[in-house]
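step: validate -> pass
step: tokenize input -> pass
step: predict -> running
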Amino acid sequence: MSAPSFTHDVLIIGQGLAGAVLSETLALQGKRVCVFDRPQAGRSSAVAAGMVNPIVLRRTIPSWRASEMLAIAGAFYRELEMRYDTTFWHPLTLAAIFPTAQEAGIWQLRTKDPEIAPFLERESTADVALESLPRPYGHGVVKRCGWLDVQGFLDQHRARWSKAGDLVETSVAPSDHIPVPGGVRIHERSAPVVVYCEGPFSAYPGLVPVRGEGLTVRVPGLDLQCAVHRGVFLLPIGDQTYRVGATFAWDDVWSGPTTEARHYLTDRLERLLERPFEVVDHWAGVRPTSRDRRPIIGRIGAYEAVFNGLGSRGVLLAPWSAQHLTDHLFKAAPLDAEVDPVRFA
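step: predict -> pass
step: emit ->
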């Protein structure tokens, strides 16, 4: 009996950050991929600030598998830049301004902890623009941070894959999934597996949609080279323009932007800056988080898989998660129990 014949190796539904990173990862492995996507209002990838920070600042501990995730993410985004011949990835440091003497003392102690010390410095004034910000108790520096121009990447990914005929701008309904021997067919494309990268629009068990809001502001005369955090983060994106964020809301997530969030953000920004600023934009999106703050990746059926739950650290988690799923699908690598969808079954 002859083996089934397919037009592709993988079909992907969704072209947010998860779908785009997965498609690029698979393509690097020589896989034939087709992406189906129709842009929808509200998804977080469209408005994500793209910040990567390996530290949970409120607790001064490393984020989940920070060293491993950073190494893979940095290498992936640099490879992406070479492939697209442009700049998406911007390494920088993060200055965490201490609001109290107690927090300054805690930071000093944590710099001696071997688990977190590789990510921290006690204080640095390498960015002279920091001197113009109020820092009554000083600041600490988080190394190995960065930000991804998510929208720039997604726009170029969409244009490139559409031109090649590998991104189809259409919605996919359950009735569009046609079983075929050894796989599935969707809109005349077929493959042994379809991966759902639907973000907050999925109803998969364990997913928790969380609305995030932020601002784009101009701060005349302030030319920071590092990101800053004091209650909110301030991320420089050029020309004295910054992204500010972000809020977390678990109720009524599809509303927004909201007046309440705008007041919250501007109030904290006023305390951080103590100087005039202009709000250029106010944006909102819905993050696809999971109940345990871990990605949800793996097979969920004979010919189906899921790649979701990246949450607010999606830029950091996506490259590792995409490689892990690729190895699972094509090299029979076992799934890490912490990301296996079965934990929510």
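step: describe -> The mean pLDDT is 94.
step: cleanup -> pass
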